[in-house]
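Hi all, long-time lurker, first post. I run a small reading group and we've been trying to get comfortable going from sequence to structure in the token notation. Rather than ask abstract questions, I figured I'd post a concrete chain and ask someone more experienced to write out its structure so we can walk through it together at our next meeting. Sequence below, copied exactly:
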Amino acid sequence: MDQVGEQIRLARLRRRLSADQLAERTGISRRTIYSIEKGSSSVSIGYYLNVLKVLGLEKDILKLASDDELGRKLQDAGMVTKDRAPKKKL
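-- Answer (accepted) --
Happy to help. Here is the structure in token form:
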């Protein structure tokens, strides 16, 4: 999440927006904007999405897990996973 926050901060700076301006445009407090830019996991994903929308980056969220290399390898290998973990013997 730290990297996500840093990328959002850099995107804001490239657009020459202050944290106050971004807060005003998103309707999110400046304190929450700073938390987002630090990658805080306590901030709602909805706030992250709102910030991305204002920055014009909302479609970037679609890239999450799009290149699931491990998942594709497992799928290609035909591995089947059980619905439940086996019971532990005491």
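A couple of things your group might point at:
DSSP finds five helices and no strands in the chain.
The two ends are 38 Å apart (CA to CA).
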